[in-house]
Amino acid sequence: MGDLFSEDWSACQDVGKKAYDERFQAVLSWSSTGHDKILAVFTERSEDRLAVIETLT
């Protein structure tokens, strides 16, 4: 997880690319700053809805 907290965004972008390649509809991850989380939604796959399959607390 330490690789995601960096000024180099490539690790975060790699996570998004892998999720896209695996046909995920969205991915929830830490932001590159490490201060917040980010939800990336691949809208062309959402089919006008998005199902939550797991929540993190």
List the total number of helices: 1
Number of extended strands: 2
**Widest sheet, order of strands:** 1-2
The level of helicity is 10-25%
The class by helix and strand makeup works out as: alpha+beta
Q: Which percent range describes the beta-strand content?
A: 15-25%
Structural domain count: 1
Unreliably modeled segments? none
Distance between the termini: 17 Å
Order of helices and strands: HEE
Integer average pLDDT: 75
Shape: globular
Radius of gyration: 12 Å
The biggest sheet, with number of strands, parallel, antiparallel or mixed sense and barrel status, is: 2 strands, antiparallel
Quick structural overview:
The protein is α+β, with helices and mostly antiparallel strands. It has 1 helix and 2 strands.
List the helices and strands and how they pair.
Elements: H1 10-21, E1 26-30, E2 37-41
Provide structural commentary.
The chain has 57 residues and is of the alpha+beta class. The chain has one domain. 21% of the residues lie in helices and 18% in strands. It has one helix and two strands. It has one helix at residues 10-21; strands at 26-30, 37-41. It has a two-stranded antiparallel ribbon.
